[in-house]
Amino acid sequence: MGRTASYPPGAGHPSGAAPGLRTAIAGVGMIGRVHLDAVRRTGAPVVGVSASSPARAKEAAAALGVEHAYDSSEELVTSDDVDVVHICTPNDAHAPLAELALRAGKHVVCEKPLTTSPESAATLAALARETGLVAAVPFVYRYHPMAAEARARAADGRTGEIRLVHGHYLQDWLSEPGDTNWRVDAVAGGPSRAFADIGSHWCDLVEWVTGHRITELTALTQTVDRAGGRPATEDAVQLLFRTDRGATGTLTVSQISPGRKNRLWFEVDGTRTSLAFDQEAPESLFVGSRGENGAVLRDPATLSPAAARLSVVPGGHPMGYLDCFAAFVRDVHDTVRAGGPRRTTPLYPTFDDAARMVRLTAAVLGSAADRTWKEVD
Ligand SMILES: NC(=O)c1ccc[n+]([C@@H]2O[C@H](COP(=O)([O-])OP(=O)(O)OC[C@H]3O[C@@H](n4cnc5c(N)ncnc54)[C@H](O)[C@@H]3O)[C@@H](O)[C@H]2O)c1
């Protein structure tokens, strides 16, 4: 009997719409608008937004076609009319808003870095566990199908024992003397900038792909004098590390690399094959061996099930960053509908994962300050 072909062949299917999950978004700058698009793609309503002032919230709500403009983010995260809140504000507002939201019984999606200190991250992660609510952080590079394919190949033995992990995350938007942003400010942004902002994404992704944990590290940081001598946070980090399973690694993180826009790249070298993934060219995964080298293309018909589930259009129809966010929000909604993380194992990155990245960030800053190796639990 012939096999019935599906179109797209073998593709993962987005879960159904979640009309009941009323969502509100605190902060609708660059990433808040990406969250808004992702929520709408699930079919759930975005019922309200907040901004840095009531007037800006009204403007944003009108521009984005959202019904309600909250006067403050505090009002938004505690509103009776909301089931899921997304916190997309500058970093220093994450912890207080996430705590208020959890205490008000809301499911929370909070942007990274979860908080600006390891202590507050631990407190928040513990609170999230106590409540049994969904508490998710969009380390969304995990949602690229070919990154998921790398994870599947590392887990099923095709890669062999992992010996080396290396790569970089490079941007250029702070490379010129006049460049600035709230992220540069150590209060709004927190004590780490480049590492907390993008290094944490790389480490989360690489730990997720390999199943290894970074346990020891030493770091060098570099800070550009952009503020006329005022204290500023680091623009670049160079990191040397060991993992709990005996691999060694290096990472360069920079927001001052001209021409590099969002170059997150990693390579994992195992005893059988090497795997390399480039976030700016996410439709393929380099798979190298002594005998044969090549790019494995995203094709849901041939990928591992965990990668095929994220691959919602056929190969040759490029997917990207916005699709990662949509898949992440679908996982959040699926877990809410399943009764929360006590009823089903969450597939999304949790507050515990994000708290680990805050601890790693503190170890990086500590190592650079002391010129020593630091252990990370
Ligand atoms: N997961 C990712 O891939 C990703 C990507 C980019 C940014 N982020 C994170 O998202 C957050 C926002 O970054 P962004 O790039 O959108 O910055 P942004 O500057 O574009 O937007 C932040 C917005 O928040 C508003 N705001 C300030 N205080 C507020 C408050 N109390 N309540 C509501 N709104 C407030 C600002 O006016 C601004 O419009 C940061 O924590 C950042 O680290 C994550």
TrEMBL record:
* Domain called GFO/IDH/MocA-like oxidoreductase: residue spans: 149-275
Which SUPFAM superfamilies does the record cross-reference, listed alphabetically?
Answer: Glyceraldehyde-3-phosphate dehydrogenase-like, C-terminal domain (SSF55347), NAD(P)-binding Rossmann-fold domains (SSF51735)
UniProt keywords (A-Z) are: Oxidoreductase
Among InterPro entries, the record links this protein to: Gfo/Idh/MocA-like_OxRdtase_N, Gfo/Idh/MocA_oxidrdct_glycsds, GFO_IDH_MocA-like_dom, NAD(P)-bd_dom_sf
Tell me the superkingdom of the source. Bacteria
**Keyword Oxidoreductase listed:** yes
Residues forming the Gfo/Idh/MocA-like oxidoreductase N-terminal domain are: 21-137
**Molecular-function GO terms, alphabetical:** nucleotide binding; oxidoreductase activity
Q: Which Pfam families did the record assign? A: GFO_IDH_MocA, GFO_IDH_MocA_C3
Q: Which protein, by its recorded name, is this?
A: Predicted dehydrogenase
Which organism does this sequence originate in?
A: Actinacidiphila guanduensis
Taxon lineage = Bacteria, Bacillati, Actinomycetota, Actinomycetes, Kitasatosporales
